[in-house]
Amino acid sequence: MSEDHRVAAVILAAGASRRYGSPKQLVVVDGRTLLEHAIDTAMEVGLAPVVAVVPVWLSRPARLDDDRLLWIRNPFPERGLSLSLRLAFGSLGDEATAALILLGDQPRVPATTIAALLAARGQRPIVASQADGVLAPPLVIERSHFSLVDGLTGDVGLRQLLHANPELVRPVEVAMHPPDVDTPDDLGRIGRP
Known about the structure:
By secondary structure, the chain is α/β, with parallel strands linked by helices. The chain has a single domain (3-189), classed as Alpha-Beta Complex (Spore Coat Polysaccharide Biosynthesis Protein SpsA, Chain A). The protein contains 4 helices and 9 strands, in the order βββαββαβαββαβ. A 7-stranded mixed β-sheet has the order 5-4-1-6-8-7-9, sandwiched between helices. β2 and β3 form a beta hairpin. The chain is globular. The chain starts with 6 loop residues before the first strand and ends in a 20-residue tail after the last strand. The model has no long low-confidence stretch (mean pLDDT 88).
């Protein structure tokens, strides 16, 4: 990726895991936590920096000692995704021209989906994956439109942003959205990589 088109990754993982019943950030799948899966995917496709927004109690694993990773602690996770997005965007230096948003509870985002989103940049300021007519993360948002998250409050995530600004969104068709792990039963749905 050229320096003038440097895309950062923002991984949202500060949630309280209420439906799961214990911290999802610590759930291990195939030898790595859900969060580590998302971080590894972002790094493998060459995104930098990779910003992980986590709860204050979560320590950075030693195996993730990488200069490309920014570990941002959200002191008020109860304020929802909106605060996590603002913290992440505020941590990005001027060198990031866009950010790819990933959810920390989606361990099976295909590299092909990320590549398709990045390839579609340029026509509109937001590029979002779409399956069965539904827009959802992962998505790319250009730096010129980072300020859109300033109007979000509470646990209002990116779907509201997408629906409120359809003229800004370039949909990219994907076979399916990666499944979220919201409950222990969801672990059976995510399959193998």
